[in-house]
Amino acid sequence: MIILALTLLALALYLASAAALARPLFTGNQPLTRVAMSMASVAALAHVGVLLLAHHGTLDFHFFAALSLMAWVVSVLTLIVNLTLPVAGLGVLIFPLTAALLALDVFIAGPSAPKPMNWQIELHVTMAVLGFGLLSIAAALAILLAIQERALRRSQFGHWLRALPPLTATEVLFFRLIAVGFVPLTLTLVTGALFVGNLFSQHLVHKTVLSIAAWIVFGTLLWGRWRYGWRGRRAVNLTLIGMGVLLLAFFGTKAVLELILHRGG
Predict the structure, then answer these.
(1) What pTM value is reported for the model?
(2) Which domain holds residue 221?
(3) In this predicted model, what pLDDT tens digit does every residue of 224-240 receive, in sequence order?
(4) What angle do CA 147, 152, 156 make, to 5 degrees?
(5) Per the structure, how many domains does the chain have?
């Protein structure tokens, strides 16, 4: 009953927060940012309560549990980053998705038995989750940048566009998040090489190759930004490609192994 109550509270507040942030899309008024962030903060607290109670206080990386955990991390990072930088508007995309993934974990997924981890693997997993979360926010900003640039090229100056942060500020934040997220992504590969027995064994090779490919994509983008000043559509496309590869590394093969082949991922 406690898990159900916390789940319903989190779902309601995530969706209410997204609605408050989406206010300019329907009314032209300013978003209720403080109210929305307060509701999302309470939702995140309820969400972590569900994760702790439903998964016995351990890191559970079965498919739906991992999706719920990753969504929670992205939401919390959005709240933290918004304390100093204007990313609250991303909650329109992030908070409903988090609510959906939480609902899948609680109402659709069956019970799972988390595997014990030593501190080395926990460090590796923590770096992976942190890097994925930061780069997910950067990918959401990439989508926002693409929408803003498209609207400006077509001279579509709607009230919703005026409610968003300036394009230049969004772009600066976008590259800053990629640079910061690239660090834990790099540490994920380093700790994996140090602490994981055989990264190229049959059940890990797909994750390893895809993670390295994503690292190369994001590294290339950062190098191109530093060396040639890459921006705009090229930066957006590379970010979305890198995030797509990272999603496949984290969840694509896991979905095949667990949901189709019914094997541990």
Answers:
(1) 0.83
(2) 117-265
(3) 999 999 988 899 999 99
(4) 90
(5) 2
